[in-house]
User: Which sequence fits this backbone?
């Protein structure tokens, strides 16, 4: 528990670096949020800037912003008038998180079972087919899979809707599968490799000598150490699913938060983009933290306490 | 390449170096051979096909706007809604994507190798601080920073090299640092140090050549990742800009006209997949050949 606490504290400076970097990056480039609008009289522009505190010195803006973040206030959006960034995120996040979460779940279930089976049937037909498929799908990023699946299942076969959200549960299928497929391929390979290694260890030999059933050996004894690389991969997987969701939401016109990121950037909506970076940053840091904790729980050989906070 | 002393040859006879041995093991695999041939062919067509073609990849065929693939009309992959020949555009896109993949990976390898070798060779506190920085950067949502960078800094192709290289160097730095830690304990390093060779010369002349193996393997595996990342940025409209094209741009265009002109998606997407698959197979083949892994 103290380890978890220490790690949580350790995440604070990281977050501060992320916020600061994003803030500097955004302010160091020419062009402000009101540049693209029609030419407005200077008084009005001054008023606009004052309303959003853009007239204050930069460090005051920065400190103000940090203070807001601590209170959970990410400021007003520059382009979506009448909305605060927190409201926009609150509106879109549940949709994005549901898709992302389900994609991770599907990837875990399919990846683990396929990987384990492939290891068991090593070099046989099943293994070769699975390995060939993973090779293919590793080469297909989400933004290729999504339109391809959409073409096949929505345009040609007409089984599933092309896009949209919230009308029928059928709309879940394509986005989730498109996000999950590259991860399934990766997890399958991880699990297969780890399982092959575990199956050669002595305690598995001992389990066989005791006459345990093969299914029990695999799914009770061998599976636990096999999970270790999978758990440590889940951190990067979360990050890649988050970035993938930006594209997926665009392709299937899903009202998640991914689209704010691109649109906010193109509109120079400072606060929106900053808010998104912070939100994604917190998500990724938290998921990494969670995975580390699960890892240490699964693997008694990892002793974080004595290593002084890892 | 100069004759590089890797480590004492173990099973090789006097005339065959360890590199040659690995090379033999590498090309003996049928999947590796096929990948080399396919990739070589693709690269050859992509680099020379566009040049010797009578048409420019941007030329408009007014009598053939959005037509499907047809051999009679000479448009093997069809044309897009501006009447541009997709075959030429895919070749051009493949060329750009491959170039970006190679150059950006080279940037990341350069940064990663220098960084990792310095951290590993000096060790101690320098190593601790440098690797802590890598740890911190690892935890950053980097792809979002790249997107930020592309959005705000304008969309030049050089910035793509830099941004992609800046993302991919972390893993290389870690691998290289680990290798450098082992290599620096070798006797020839002690010997070099004892005759007063300055540290950076040792790193350049003795450490880096000796960790070339893992670096080559990792670079082969980084190129496809970089190509995918570039396509991702281009897909979002943040990477390569019209009139220049890349596979990501073509895929993005194609996915918007899915119903009317599916070939606009299928050919660029297929080309991307073939390139990435071949490179992945080469990377894994190299890894197995150089490090003799039986497991995978």
Assistant:
């Amino acid at each position: 528990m103290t380890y978890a606490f220490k790690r949580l504290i350790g995440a604070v400076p990281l977050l501060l670096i992320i916020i600061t970097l994003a803030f500097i990056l955004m302010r160091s480039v020419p062009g402000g949020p009101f540049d693209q609008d029609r030419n407005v009289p200077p008084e009005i522009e001054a008023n606009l800037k004052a309303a959003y505190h853009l007239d204050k010195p930069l460090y005051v803006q920065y400190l103000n912003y940090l203070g807001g973040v601590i209170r959970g206030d990410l400021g007003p959006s520059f382009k979506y008038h009448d909305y605060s960034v927190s409201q926009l995120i609150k509106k879109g996040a549940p949709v994005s998180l549901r898709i992302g979460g389900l994609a991770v779940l599907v990837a875990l279930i399919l990846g683990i079972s396929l990987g384990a089976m492939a290891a068991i049937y090593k070099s046989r037909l099943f293994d070769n087919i699975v390995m060939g498929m993973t090779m293919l799908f590793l080469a297909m990023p989400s933004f290729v899979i999504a339109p391809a699946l959409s073409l096949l299942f929505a345009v040609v076969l007409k089984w599933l809707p092309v896009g949209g959200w919230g009308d029928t549960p059928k709309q879940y299928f394509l986005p989730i599968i498109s996000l999950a497929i590259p991860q399934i391929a990766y997890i399958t390979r991880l699990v297969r490799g780890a399982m092959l290694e575990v199956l050669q260890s002595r305690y598995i030999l001992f389990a066989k000598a005791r006459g345990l059933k093969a299914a029990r050996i695999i799914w009770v004894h061998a599976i636990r150490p096999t999970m270790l690389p999978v758990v440590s991969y889940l951190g990067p997987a979360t990050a890649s699913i988050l970035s993938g969701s930006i594209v997926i939401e665009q392709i299937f016109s899903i009202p998640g938060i991914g689209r704010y990121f691109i649109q906010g950037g193109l509109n120079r909506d400072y606060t929106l983009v900053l808010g998104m970076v912070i939100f994604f940053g917190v998500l990724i840091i938290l998921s990494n933290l969670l995975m580390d904790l699960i890892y240490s729980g699964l693997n008694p050989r990892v002793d974080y306490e004595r290593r002084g906070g890892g | 390449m100069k004759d590089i002393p890797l480590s004492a040859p173990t099973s090789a006879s006097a005339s065959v170096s360890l590199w040659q041995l690995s090379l033999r093991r590498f090309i003996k695999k049928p999947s590796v051979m096929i990948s080399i041939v396919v990739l070589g062919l693709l690269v050859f067509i992509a680099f020379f096909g566009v040049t010797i073609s009578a048409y420019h990849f941007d030329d408009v065929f007014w009598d053939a706007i959005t037509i499907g693939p047809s051999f009679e009309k000479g448009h093997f992959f069809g044309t897009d809604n501006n009447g541009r020949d997709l075959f030429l555009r895919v070749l051009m896109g493949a060329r750009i994507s491959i170039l970006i993949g190679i150059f950006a990976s080279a940037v990341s390898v350069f940064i990663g190798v220098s960084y990792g070798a310095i951290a590993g060779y000096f060790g101690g506190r320098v190593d601790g601080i440098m690797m802590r920085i890598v740890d911190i950067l690892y935890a950053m949502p980097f792809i979002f920073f790249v997107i930020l960078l592309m959005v705000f800094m304008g969309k030049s192709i050089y910035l793509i090299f830099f941004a992609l290289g800046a993302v991919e160097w972390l893993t290389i730095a870690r691998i290289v640092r680990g290798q450098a830690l082992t290599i620096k304990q070798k006797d020839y390093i002690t010997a070099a140090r004892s005759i007063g060779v300055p540290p950076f010369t040792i790193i350049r002349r003795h450490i880096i050549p000796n960790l070339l193996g893992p670096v080559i393997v990792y670079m082969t595996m980084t190129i496809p990742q970089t190509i995918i990342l570039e396509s991702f940025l281009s897909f979002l409209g943040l990477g390569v800009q019209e009139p220049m094209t890349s596979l990501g741009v073509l895929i993005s265009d194609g996915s918007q006209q899915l119903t009317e002109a599916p070939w606009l998606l299928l050919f660029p997407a297929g080309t991307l997949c073939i390139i990435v698959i071949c490179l992945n197979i080469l990377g894994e083949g190299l890894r197995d050949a150089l490090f003799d892994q039986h497991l995978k």
About this structure: Chain B has eleven helices and no strands.
